[in-house]
Amino acid sequence: MTILPLHNLKSYPPEQTVTNDLHHLSPRNQLKNFAMDILKRSSKTWVSEVLGNLDTMWDTIESNISKSGSASYIVPLQKFIFKFLTKSLVGADPSSSPDIAESGYIMLDRWLALQLLPTVKIGILQPLEEIFLHSWAYPFLLVSGDYRKLYEFVRKEGKEVLRRGETEFGLSSEETIHNLLFVLGFNAFGGFSVFLPSLVSTIASDTTGLQEKIRQEVREKGGSTLNFDSVKEMELVLSVVYEVLRLNPPVPLQYARARKDFQLRSHDSVYDIKKGELLCGYQTLVMRDPKVFEEPESFRPDRFMNSNGSELLSYLYWSNGPQTGSPSVSNKQCAAKDYVVLTAAMFIAYAFRRYDSITGDSSSITAVEKAN
């Protein structure tokens, strides 16, 4: 949920995380097993938490529009993501701690920024960017206060998940908390915080009549209650989600070292790869291959519909593996791949059960028309 997303739980070795200044994460397979167990158990509350917190998010946006004529959706969206994920994955309600309820998402933003800054393009004059931003890891001390507050919150409020980590996976209490914060903060919150704004911006700024088609499908196929099963029937909604993931993968870069000698093949070339060589996959380029995707630079909301579209899912690699693949402890695919897609589809379906239209851009909603 690449996942960054929600991105892959094995893509970032422990030594690349700032939390490693305090501890050593558990072995990677153990971590992914723990993460997959968390996801499995969270399914009991995931849908209800998504829908309940979407109510709050859109109420806030509506209120801000009525006051100012437009509303930035970034903060309400991040609060929504933080609260539903914390309740689903940790089993803890942020409202039990006023500090976490008010600023928990900001604490995660700062923690993520410190880790990602050495790897992202800022756009300042080169070589200054490389010299001053990309040449070293930033000290954990800069966010240690935030991290400690989140740590203590999980320790006090996430007792059931911590018990499972200790009794079912052989982790210490400290290891369980650190790994849980990594899943919550880096994988889940970080991935959704990148992906969902792209989804909102794409739909809210569309002028081609897409919203009308989405609205019709959502209201015809949504049933009396939204859930994962009902959104699986929404072919256009799912195609829109896939297309946004294709054009704007939450985690554009993945790295790995070759475990053995092998040949890497493209459409027209073969490359000899030696054991131990470092490989980098650039998802944004992979999923704009003109030999696979017609008009690869264009947003085509129906691209993944019908039988031809279903075949293209084998080339949709946003989750560090094909959309037709399945995450396991033996591969590097995002553990929450399916949760990401279905949650995003539910996000769209909820919006178009509540509204006839949504108008906005990359950061703001300027108007909403309530459903009749």
TrEMBL record:
One of its GO terms (biological process) is sterol metabolic process. The keyword Heme applies. It comes from the Eukaryota. Pfam families: p450 (PF00067). One of its GO terms (molecular function) is heme binding. InterPro entries: Cyt_P450 (IPR001128), Cyt_P450_E_grp-IV (IPR002403), Cyt_P450_sf (IPR036396). Transmembrane segments: none annotated. Its cofactor is heme. Keywords: Heme, Iron, Metal-binding. The keyword Ribonucleoprotein does not apply. Belongs to the cytochrome P450 family. This is Allene oxide synthase, chloroplastic. The lineage of its organism: Eukaryota, Viridiplantae, Streptophyta, Embryophyta, Tracheophyta.
